[in-house]
Amino acid sequence: MDDMSRYRMQTWGNRMDLQMERRMEQFLELSGLSAKRAEPCMEFIVPPCRLYIECLDGRILLSLGRPVAAACRVDVLKLLLGQCLSTRLPGVPLRACLLQDHSFLSCSPARDSGPGHWMACHQEMRRLLDAAAGAPW
Questions:
Q1: E strand or H helix at 98, and its extent?
Q2: Which end of the chain is more exposed for a tag (fewer CB within 10 A), N or C?
Q3: The predicted structure's pLDDT at residue 126
Q4: Does residue 7 surpass a pLDDT of 70?
Q5: Radius of gyration of the CA atoms of the chain, in A
Q6: Dist CA 22 CA 81 (whole Å)
């Protein structure tokens, strides 16, 4: 069992209230992702990226990963860490990490934020990951 599978199993017991479920459905629709229903923990593979959406204590956690060649993983991580500025997503901390062969960015917007803001966070994380993947190594 890989690290992400173990993590998903640990967080699987989370529940969502109806309002959060509706906001999740709106986000899925805005982002063009298809799911039979909104769940507290979802994974989407949108090549070349993997998107994890989790509902934790009434907040959403978005984690977006992209494969990175072994030879440049540390350089990509350093670049992404340098991009995690507080002004990048105003009021939303952005975190970078490496997990197996993927570089990841994650954020957890404010509890009262909505699908439009989540989408802006997702798009910015995607832009940063794509830029890091295209950097000349």
A1: strand 94-99
A2: N
A3: 96
A4: no
A5: 15
A6: 33
**Residue at token pair 């957890």:** 108
DSSP string for residues in 22-88: HHHHHHHHHHT---SS--SEEEEEETTEEEEEEEETTEEEEEEEEE--GGGHHHHHHHHHHH--TTT
10, burial (CB in 10 Å: exposed 0-12, middle 13-18, buried 19+): exposed
For residues 12-31, give the mean pLDDT.
86
Contacts of residue 31, Cβ cutoff 8 Å, sequence gap at least 6: 119, 122
13 pLDDT more than 70: no
CA distance 3 to 1: 7
What's this model's pTM, rounded to 2 decimal places? 0.86
Beta bridge partners of 44: 51
CA distance 116 to 23: 9
* Omega within 30 of 0 (cis) for the link into 48: yes
Whether the per-residue pLDDT at 136 is higher than 50: the answer is yes
Residue 119 amino acid letter: M
Does pLDDT of 59 surpass 80? yes
